[in-house]
Amino acid sequence: MHELTALGGPMPDFRRFDEGFAATNELRTRGTDHLLAAAAEVGGVRFIAQSFTGWPNERTGGPVKTEEDPLDPTPTGPSRQTLAAIRYLESVTTEVGGLAVRYGGLYGPGQLLGRGGQIVEMVRARRLPVVGGGAGVWSFCHIEDAASATAAAVTRGAPGAYNIVDDEPAPVSEWLPDLTGVLGAKPPLRIPAWVARPLLGEHGIAMMTTVRGSSNAKAKRELGWQPRYETWRRGFREGLG
Fold first, then answer.
1. Mean local confidence (pLDDT), 48-58
2. Domain layout of the chain by residue ranges
3. Are 102 and 163 in contact (CB under 8 A)?
4. With b meaning 16 or more CB within 10 Å and e meaning fewer, what string describes 156-176?
5. Fewest CB within 10 angstroms: 32, 53, 60, 102, which?
């Protein structure tokens, strides 16, 4: 079970996205190689590795992607190294008959989007605006649902990638105002993309305006998994912490 990450501090700077993920990307590449080598020595191991879904999706076509859809062939400049590391991890994992569990945007206790977390505090302070219409589609996953899906993958599912997300992908323009209401905060500011670009950079603007969501149909069908928080609407109200 490969759950290694170097994340856990403040939210990465979207303008220098790859820099913030550099150590985690080493774990996704060299770290995965070491674990696969160890698994080969032991023999008979079912290998499972965590990945991510959402912004890595191709940013053209429909708003919701499945595991059959390609990853973004033209990623933003600041995210190229991170997407390359994700591609590598998924490729070498599935080549040995393993499963890549692609978590959506995690929220809940201990997360950036959880009680006392950085994103929640940004929303309270009105420092997380809806940018450029907020058409970017996000797929969320409560931390407990990520754990239950991963546990299911220990014994179920054929080799391949699985999107571990809730049932309701939603644009920023929909979920962010809802979150402010849950937190009792003022509605988010709305600003044009050109105004936000110096602060968010190319990748941050994409997160707000062009990213695509993900379908969980395959995980529900092949892993026999059902998220406890079937939608972020319930999760934001009951599961932040």
1. 98
2. 14-238
3. yes
4. ebeebbbbbbbebbbbbbbbb
5. 60
Q: With a threshold of 0.85, does the pTM exceed it?
A: yes
Contact partners, residue 19, CB within 8 Å, separation at least 6: 12, 13
Task: Select the more confidently predicted residue: 62 or 44.
Answer: 62
Model pLDDT, residue 11? 87
Biggest alpha carbon–alpha carbon distance for the chain: 56
pLDDT-derived band at 233, boundaries 50, 70, 90: very high
